[in-house]
Specification:
mainly alpha, Heme Oxygenase, Chain A, homotetramer, 220 residues, 81% helix
């Protein structure tokens, strides 16, 4: 996680705000109001659709077949697995597939996803990865930390969510992504370019915090 | 303004929220706190940079040389004229070019601009136009209405801004855009597709309201 | 195959040139020089890499999750299956993976693939499909016709290739694509737009003929 | 012209084939059949339309306002000036605007232009510049060399064309482009990436040779 570690250190304020957001704290404690979580989950479904488009853009942008296959894994993970998991999880709280698919996108959802897509389209594969990294690796870090704090205990209504991101499957995916990010950087990253990559990473981290805050704000 | 009039009628709630927003009302009255306007103006500068990219995308997406030239007018208007006008206007209130160019983009600025860019990139020229229309034509409508209400009177601190958008130059540009939008629609718009075009128009109008609100929120 | 049938009829000269090209005739007879086929096969491998990018672009361009999944099937078919089949087939004639992957792209390969990618990027999903259709559906038609003529007889060195495209798997894929193409057209095709769609289809068909000709020209 | 000089040296075979192509030699001598030149000129008109799209893509891809303005110059040069010059020049040989605009694109025209557009869209600004460089700087070099050989003498039917590219206006534009290319490279070019940039430059140079050859082949 070399490039990632450097970015995380340089974007420490944004990173801490995002990964230790009040939404995350309450989710770990189990005190997060259900309406906040449900609002988050529906928006996260809409978010994932755009994220699948961003991974597909990665296939289009890849300079080698091996990079194409790496990006394809991300598209498959979302379209073949994650979307249905969200529908299932939402179903437990009485929300139907229609309700979820027809929910309007909130501004923070649009801001984050369209920012990633545009960063990727206007730049190269490294720019796309820098904009994707906070979400992919940050969720792994959050899952891990919450589990370390025992947040995945029985009785926590959000246990399943925590286990998902703390689980080996997701942790592997995040590690794989971090290595791939490093390999790309070894090919194309210069020091002159680093500030621009950092800026993408900072913005994406900030947009993650806004996304959590949107969840908190759903509380009546 | 045929397609535009239809969209405006069908997106009436979003359109009214946007064009008659509290920010606009206070701007017309001259009661808008200066800090709100300044915040808006700096963000609008950053917005215009992205909008120039969206017009350039229009050149790339144009199916004919005549469409390319129409899009090019938009790029030129921003890069050759409007950006400098913003710098000049900001200068009157003591803001330097550096201050403006280095200001961080607010979330509503990112949400709106990246939404337009992605709508245009993923769709065709009509999709791009539908996402651009609320800004281009809405500002003309606002300028006109405020002037009709006498808001461009001497003594209104925002007189220059109002005159800019009420002026013949801008009104012509907006009319030209509306005709071009109609011509494209005559070529490619079907009734089955209309709901998607309307949705782009509604979202862009909503993102305009969020942009005004960002200005209002800058009040301490 | 409604839209496809109309396009095929209107682009009859280009369609006949492509699907009944001398290369195809000799391939059916088994008289095609091996060096022609090998040259074709290596270029087709390079072609498929770009075609996978085009399908990925389809995921990015899709207006619905269902369209995204349809496009994803195309990416998977190439990256998970077809590329390896080509390597295997090439291996039979003594070509190594390295040789294939490092072969320079011929001009007809570049012309065809980049044309499809640009048609898709600058237009919408229907434009992309119109540029993809001649390849996807044409190969099914060729496979079928050759088999009907008994070209897949034992002893024809190109039997395996013919069986691949005449087989149920590929025929289904082509039928599925044609239906999807029709569904998109029902949503977004107007008569005013039809000539542009036809032009994409004609150009792609012409580029297919150039691709066969490149194979024939490889004969010493 | 630092990066450009390095690329030119490393792609010497492709560069020499392109800039000293038989078409260029005959054009300098004045012995080039008129039908070859006319065919070239019409295709070059269609080429320029796509090149304007590529420059517009440069505006979209630019990481700074200053880069955006540099790209914009290219769009303006083509849409505001060069296209009309081509129409005028063609007019001298009895070709009408309609004839030119409705001419079908030849395969080498499609191969070259779509390659540049796709290289730019899938990569970053440097990739786009590397694909544009052979055309922009190569024409300046050809114009200069031919003039040095006295090819712009009265009586050479192609004198006007030679003067155009040997003239200060075009020479300045090419020098400006080369500096801009260098500035971008200073920001983002690594040694690991260099082979990919070289490959884009080589391919574009090869596609330039194919373009001249298309002109020569027009001879009956």
């Amino acid at each position: 996680m070399k490039l990632f570690e450097r970015l995380k250190a340089d974007a420490a304020p944004q990173w801490v705000n995002y990964t230790q957001h009040e939404f995350v704290r309450q989710l770990g404690e189990g005190s997060l109001p259900l309406e906040c979580f449900k609002h988050y989950l529906v928006q996260d479904y809409l978010f994932l659709i755009q994220f699948a488009r961003a991974y597909a853009l990665g296939v289009y942008k890849s300079p080698s077949v091996s990079d194409m296959r790496q990006s394809l894994e991300g598209v498959k993970a979302i379209l073949d697995i994650e979307l249905d998991l969200h529908i299932e999880l939402c179903g437990k709280w009485g929300m139907s597939r229609e309700e979820i698919e027809n929910a309007p996108e909130d501004t923070p959802t649009m801001a984050y996803t369209r920012f990633v897509l545009d960063a990727g389209m206007s730049g190269d594969l490294l720019d796309l990865q820098a904009a994707l990294a906070p979400c992919i690796i940050g969720y792994a870090e959050i899952g891990s930390r919450l589990t370390g704090q025992g947040a995945d205990r029985e009785g926590n209504a959000y246990r399943r969510w925590i286990q998902e991101y703390a689980g080996e499957g997701y942790q592997d995916l995040a590690r794989g992504f971090a290595s791939w990010f490093d390999e790309t950087a070894e090919q194309v990253l210069t020091e002159s370019r680093y500030p621009r990559v950092l800026s993408l990473f900072e913005k994406a981290s900030r947009l993650e915090s806004d996304f959590w805050q949107m969840g908190l704000n759903a509380q009546r």
